[in-house]
Amino acid sequence: MTALLTVKNLSYDYPDGTPALRGLSLDLEEGAKMAVVGSNGSGKSTLLLHLAGCFAPQRGEISLRGKAVGENLQALKDAIGMVFQEPDDQLFMPSVAMDAAFGLIARKVKPESALATAQACLERLGIAHLANRPPHRLSSGEKRLAAIAGILAMNPEIILLDEPSAALDPRARRQLISILKGLGKSMIIATHDLEMAKTVCDSAIVIQSGRVAAEGSPDKLLGCEKLLEECGL
Ligand SMILES: Nc1ncnc2c1ncn2[C@@H]1O[C@H](COP(=O)(O)OP(=O)(O)OP(=O)(O)O)[C@@H](O)[C@H]1O
Ligand SMILES: [Mg+2]
């Protein structure tokens, strides 16, 4: 069966010459939830930014349902919603509710309907009371939940989350884990939260210096202390 999303030999150096990805390959099956773990600087965010169509591959290829994306980054942008590692990179509207509704409005959904969907997502994440607040005045955990609400509202085919549980209090983290687990969606989660990875994901890759160092079931992989130690986790 053709995978939903395929990455083959993806390499990327930042403009200052820093190598971030060095021949990384992966397959995401339809409906699968994959954890991407690796030490600081191993290349997780750079990988996700490629998958979301923010960066064009310098070498290698990304395919959606077997079709090479090539220069058509819009194909990735249409299929994928990404929660960025830094909520400040994502939140920009004057209120949390408008921010969460923005993506839908940009896709020509009527504002009332977009706002209703956004409000439902805020409720689901336990932050309905923040709807009218300006996002830049929220705490860092509140900002993260607001950023996640905007992506849930869009209901994209594939969701990418970069460190979604960082800065969340234990209750918000549990709530998020339960939401992600319950979403019948293909997902890639870059995280240092190995417990969340084990609970939510059905596969995992460990990346090290921009390459896949190991892949397998989260329980097996993330239970292997020697591997985690070797990969700086
Ligand atoms: N804008 C940039 N310019 C130059 N180098 C960068 C830039 N952003 C990231 N890098 C480098 O690229 C490599 C991969 O970084 P990346 O942010 O993808 O790592 P990460 O696995 O997401 O780390 P973290 O766990 O800290 O979020 C690192 O060596 C990093 O220093
Ligand atoms: Mg990162």
Describe the SSE topology.
Blueprint: E1 5-13, E2 19-28, E3 33-37, H1 44-51, E4 59-64, E5 67-68, H2 73-79, E6 80-83, H3 96-106, H4 111-124, H5 140-154, E7 158-162, H6 170-182, E8 186-190, H7 194-200, E9 203-208, E10 211-216, H8 218-222, H9 225-230
Parallel strand pairs: 3-8, 3-9, 6-7, 7-8
Antiparallel strand pairs: 1-2, 1-4, 4-5, 9-10
Give the biggest sheet. 6 strands, mixed
Gyration radius, to the nearest Å?
Answer: 17 Å
- What's the arrangement of strands in the largest beta sheet? 6-7-8-3-9-10
What fraction strand?
15-25%
Beginning-to-end CA distance, first to last residue: 33 Å
CATH domain fold name? Rossmann fold
Mean pLDDT across every amino acid position: 95
Could you tell me which ligands this complex binds, including any ions or cofactors? adenosine-5'-triphosphate, magnesium ion
Structural class by secondary-structure content:
alpha/beta
Going by CATH, the architecture would be: 3-Layer(aba) Sandwich
Q: How many domain units? A: 1
User: What is the number of E strands?
Assistant: 10
Can you describe what's shown?
With 233 residues, the protein is an alpha/beta fold. The protein has one domain (5-230): P-loop containing nucleotide triphosphate hydrolases (Rossmann fold, 3-Layer(aba) Sandwich). It has 9 helices and 10 strands. It has helices at residues 44-51, 73-79, 96-106, 111-124, 140-154, 170-182, 194-200, 218-222, 225-230; strands spanning 5-13, 19-28, 33-37, 59-64, 67-68, 80-83, 158-162, 186-190, 203-208, 211-216. The strands form 2 sheets. A 6-stranded mixed beta sheet has the order 6-7-8-3-9-10, with helices on both faces. A 4-stranded antiparallel beta sheet has the order 2-1-4-5, covered by helices on one side. It is globular and about 45 Å long. Residues 14, 16, 18, 20, 38, 40-46, 85 line the site of adenosine-5'-triphosphate.
